[in-house]
Design goal:
Helices cover about 50% and strands about 10% of the residues. The protein has 16 helices and seven strands.
Amino acid sequence: MSILFRELLKKVGSGNHTGENLTRAEAATATKMMLLGEATPAQIGAFLIAHRIKRPTGEELAGMLDAFDELGPKLQPVSSASPVIVFGLPYDGRTRTAPISPVTALILSAVGQPVVMHGSDRLPTKYGLPLIEIWQGLGVNWATLPLEKTQEVFKQTGIGFVYTPQHFPLTNSIWEYRDQLGKRPPFATMELIWCPYAGDAHVIAGYVHPPTEAMFQIALQMRGVTKFTLVKGLEGSCDLPRDRTAIISLSHASPDLERVLLSPHDYGFTTKNVPLGSTEELLTQIKDVLVGKSSELQQTALWNGGFYLWRSGICADMRSGIAQAEELLTSGVIAIKLQELIQVVNSLSEKTFQHTH
């Protein structure tokens, strides 16, 4: 048993009256001790559930990020005219609404805006459809690439995917606790603003509950992240909703966030989200979007593509962003981008296979 960890556990687990928040340094220490297995299983389980009940602070999230920064993988800087976009999407996937972020990533990378994504397999507590499976269904298997090969894909195509079971195996044991506890611990919140990129980054994170937004803001500002975008998105993702006004916060040089409210109706979109059917159905829908077929999911792709083309500075406003997204999809540019990505990943996967056999 770790005496040091027990003291940290006592701080977060002492209840409403005597419990205390951890300092940034303490949160970093606790996170490292859990990842490295220096705390006992009983201590780790107790900490994760006590921390969830207490609720994390922005300072604690900053400390947890410090630990991930020290122990975790990073894609190295690539040359880019603008900061690399890092999308933070819930690791436990989607169960209700059709995800569009892989298409958004293809749109951005096709116009020279590099994108990094990160995630894992089907995970607790939702066990929803994860990013890795959507990419695999589109012909891009990120799961077998070691980090240096992923770096090469990122350099050549402008899209990178940090797959934690392969690239950050220290986190694997934590998932077993999440499964057994049946609740999302603060790790699930922190992952959304984790940035596994070593260069100048623009962190884009989704959230569900308004208090999370304030926590994110504090954690990012403490970590010196000056460019970030926070989206009250579909199922906590960065995908803009269509059934309600999108609530988005943009970072500025000042401590105050700029609030942007975007109504799909104002831009001629129908106000409903595309439901998520089977994975096969979604993949068929996405492939139709990539060849320019008109559909409800195409509307979602334009709504999101338009926003992110504007937010990354490629387009001057939402309307020109939407128009450019439509042009990119209907002209076949995005389908070609996907083929390029598939070819690069496959060629590097073959080299990896040959090297290991």
